[in-house]
Amino acid sequence: MGILVTGGAGFIGSHLVERLLDSGFRVTVFDNFSRGSYSNLKNSLGNPHLKIVEGDLLNAEQVSKALEDCQIVFHLAANPEVRGWLASPIDHFKQNIEATFNLLEAIRKKGALNKFIFTSSSTVYGEPETIPTPENYAPLKPISIYGASKLASEALISSYASLCGFKAVVYRLANIIGSRCNHGVIFDFIEKMKKNRKELEVLGNGTQNKSYLYIEDCLGGLITGMEKSSENVEIFNIGSNDQVNVLKIAQIVKEEMGLLDADIKLRKEFNDGRGWAGDVKIMLLDCSRLKSLGWFPKFNSEEAVRKTVRNLLNKD
Question: Which one is catalytic: 125, 137, 146, 160?
Answer without folding.
Answer: 146
